[in-house]
Amino acid sequence: MYLLFLLVVSTNVRFNFFVHSYSRNSKIQEKKIAISFDDGPSEITPAILKILHQYEAKAGFFCIGKNIEAFPKIFNQIIAEGHLVGNHTYSHTRKMGLLGVKKLVWEIEECNRIALETGQVKMKLFRPPFGIVNPKTKKALDKTGLTSVGWSIRSFDAILSSEELILSRIKKRVKPGAVILLHDNNAKTVNILEQLLLFLHENQYELVRPDKLLEINAYS
């Protein structure tokens, strides 16, 4: 039973068991909400940026280091258009939960190094790949000085195939102070985002950057 408990708290960043993560702002009463994107930049990201621009909305992009290397111009476009960029490790390996502290520190620092070299930003915010956190994650964050950011609404856009189901899942959970998780390396997310922004606009929600919503510093 204890092992099952450890598995659950290690794979859900929102529990704040091993690492404190900013996943929502429960103090906010106004209709303010944040959208964040993981796993980019990618060839899909410009379409995401175009829609955000149309709605005059700002979002957060938690970027993979090797993808910044692959799409440096898109990474700089994200920054130039006023969006937040954060650390999502260098490789986003599926073995993330098995990595030792030294390797985790390298993953974080290498992503930050590339971001600084490419976009002249010193990223301070970190999103754990797959939401996996454990005592080694805490030690790595203590060593690197980064702050963990989670989410309160998981869309499962990287898993579910139905756009209607994904959108319905998000809409049911929308509330002031929430942070929505999407992915900007998935083509269907483009259409989902457009419909979501229309829904938020019709319901008088203001979309703000995650760091502004959570009242934390994005850069050092």
From TrEMBL:
Annotated InterPro entries: Glyco_hydro/deAcase_b/a-brl (IPR011330), NODB_dom (IPR002509), Polysacc_deacetylase_ArnD (IPR050248)
Cross-referenced PROSITE patterns: NODB
Domain of life assignment: Bacteria
Sequence ranges assigned to domain NodB homology in this UniProt record: 31-208
GO MF term list: hydrolase activity, acting on carbon-nitrogen (but not peptide) bonds
GO aspect biological process, one term: carbohydrate metabolic process
Pfam families: Polysacc_deac_1 (PF01522)
PANTHER family: GLYCOSYL TRANSFERASE-RELATED
Protein name according to UniProt: Peptidoglycan/xylan/chitin deacetylase, PgdA/CDA1 family
Annotated organism of origin: Salegentibacter echinorum
UniProt lineage: Bacteria, Pseudomonadati, Bacteroidota, Flavobacteriia, Flavobacteriales
